[in-house]
Specification:
With 237 residues, the protein is of the alpha/beta class. Helices cover 48% and strands 19% of the residues. The chain has 9 helices and 7 strands. A 7-stranded mixed beta sheet has the order 3-2-1-4-5-7-6, sandwiched between helices. Strand 4, helix 6 and strand 5 form a beta-alpha-beta unit. The chain starts with a helix and ends with a strand.
Length: 237
C-alpha cells in the first residue's frame, strides 16, 4: 500500500457512521448537488453495470441504483467505510443489485472492459500517480462507456478565493470538531491545504489532459458552487 493510500485509510477509518451527514454540512449543502450532477453524466447511457470507486458509505452507489437498472459494484480502500456502505445498501430496496469489495483504485481486481460505466469521488488527491490511476480506471470500462468524477475545487477571483481559504483553514476545522469530534477536526485541518496542494501540482487543465491520455474521449468539466466543486466526465475510447 502506498503512503498516500495508507494515509487515506487512516484518515477515514473513524468517519463512516456520520460521513454523509457531515459531508453535506461541511460542504455547505453542496455535496448532494455535486453527486447528482456526476450521476447525471452516467445514467443517460442506461448502463447495465457500474463500478463506483472510492464508494465510501455508498451514497453514490445508492443513487446509481435508484436511477438505473444496473448492477452496482462499490469499491473502497477502507473496510470500515464498506461496512457502512453495506449497511446503508441493506436498507435500500435496491440492495440486491449492489455489491462491495475492498480494492485500490491504482490496481483494480477486474479484467479489462468489465463495466459499462464508472464513477469515482474525491479520489485523485489520495493516490501517488493520478495519471496512472486514471489509466487504470479507464482500463476496466467498456469502449464507449461513460466515466464521471466529482472532486473539490479551488475558487478563483479576488472575493471567492480569500473566502474559501478562510472557510477551509478556520471555519471548516472548527465546524468539524463541533459536529463530529476529533476525527472531523483532523479532516477539517487536512482538507483545505490538501485541495490547494493538489491543484498546485495538478491544475484542472492538467487533469483534463490526463483523462484524454488515459483513453477517455469527449472530456468535459463543470465547475460548480462558485468554484467549490468540479464534475468531470467523458467516454472510454
Amino acid at each position: 500500500m502506498t503512503g498516500e493510500a495508507s494515509f487515506a485509510r487512516s484518515l477515514f477509518d473513524g468517519l463512516p457512521p456520520r460521513y454523509d451527514r457531515l459531508a453535506e454540512i461541511l460542504s455547505l449543502g453542496q455535496n448532494r448537488r455535486w453527486r447528482r450532477a456526476m450521476v447525471d453524466a452516467v445514467v443517460a447511457g442506461a448502463p447495465r453495470s457500474v463500478l463506483d470507486v472510492a464508494t465510501g458509505p455508498a451514497g453514490v452507489a445508492l443513487q446509481l441504483a435508484q436511477r438505473t437498472d444496473a448492477e452496482i459494484t462499490g469499491v473502497d480502500l477502507t473496510p470500515e467505510m464498506l461496512l457502512a456502505g453495506a449497511s446503508n445498501a441493506a436498507a435500500s430496496p435496491h440492495s440486491a443489485r449492489i455489491s462491495f469489495a475492498v480494492a485500490r483504485a491504482e490496481q483494480l481486481p477486474f479484467p479489462d472492459a468489465t463495466f459499462d460505466a464508472l464513477t469515482f469521488t474525491y479520489l485523485l488527491r489520495y493516490v501517488a500517480d493520478p495519471a496512472a490511476t486514471l489509466a487504470e480506471l479507464a482500463r476496466v470500462v467498456k469502449p464507449g462507456g461513460p466515466i464521471a468524477a466529482l472532486e473539490f475545487h479551488v475558487p478563483s477571483g479576488p472575493l471567492w478565493h480569500p473566502l474559501w481559504v478562510l472557510y477551509t483553514r478556520a471555519l471548516l476545522p472548527a465546524a468539524g470538531f463541533l459536529l463530529g469530534g476529533r476525527e472531523w477536526l483532523e479532516v477539517g485541518r487536512f482538507l483545505g491545504p490538501s485541495i490547494s496542494e493538489h491543484y498546485r501540482r495538478y491544475p484542472l487543465s492538467w487533469q483534463l489532459s490526463a483523462w484524454r491520455a488515459a483513453g477517455v474521449e469527449g472530456v468535459q468539466a463543470r465547475v460548480m458552487s462558485l468554484g467549490g466543486g468540479v464534475v468531470v466526465w467523458g467516454r472510454k475510447g
